[in-house]
Amino acid sequence: MTSFLITGPETASFTILLAHGAGGAMDSASMTGLSKALADGGFKVARFEFAYMAQRRQTGAVKPPPRADHLLGEYRAAIGELDAGNLIIGGKSMGGRVASMIADETFAAKKIRGLLCLGYPFHPPGKPDQLRTAHLQSLQTPTLICQGTRDPFGSRDEVATYSLSNQIDLLWLEDGDHDLKPRKKISGYSAGDHMQKLSAYAAAWAKRL
Question: In 3-state terms, what secondary structure has residue 6?
Fold first, then answer.
């Protein structure tokens, strides 16, 4: 049985189901900040953990996550157990990647309205040739990817060279890292500024779904 951590209004027009990244739990500072920003935009946000992370929480033993394609069943189960109308699926980094791999099947089945990826891992850091974009070229699901311009998993300059589906909308956050955080002394923006921009942009994007 999936346990959900709920943030935001119960009466929201849209619910966002968020999965965590490879190394951070659903209540990590990054996931909490992102969830609050989306809740401030009027979304109901439901966070959940994959089994390996839940086990890590119980035992304290840190093991590498399974391959992304081995987590698809768990994400499908979470969608079924949440049973929300007007659902958007997504997640932080790996969580968003897993959601993207089942997006088209769930969109075609009318189980979801869209896909939201927060810091998509386009490639492993330092390995720009190991792209994780093949399925993104033909994606049919309306998608919003929020990405920092200096994300080591896919910077603005790198992503500009990729062939991506025209269903994908990209929000670039200036000087943001993989957690979308900027260096204020360099960019002039604070993490709070970026969370406000993400919140407003995501809300406007959802209204078009």
Answer: strand
What is the rounded distance in angstroms from the CA atom of residue 25 to the CA atom of residue 174?
26
Strands 87-92 and 143-148 come out as unpaired
> Residue 2: its pLDDT value, please?
84
149: helix, coil or strand? Answer: coil
Please compute Rg for the chain using Cα positions: 16
Contact 134, 104 (CB under 8 A): no
Q: What angle do CA 101, 106, 110 make, to 5 degrees?
A: 155
The amino acid present at 84, given as its one-letter code, is A
Displacement of CA 191 from its chain's centroid (Å) = 17
pLDDT tens-place string over residues 78-89: 999 998 989 999
Among residues 204, 206, 189, the alpha carbon closest in space to that of 150 is found at 189
The residue behind tokens 């959802």 is 206
Instruction: State residue 45 phi and psi, 5-degree precision.
Output: -115, 130
Tell me which DSSP letter residue 65 carries.
P
Q: Give the position of tokens 């966002």.
A: 16
Q: Decide if pLDDT at 1 tops 90.
A: no
Provide the whole-model pTM: 0.97
61 confidence band (pLDDT: 50, 70, 90): confident
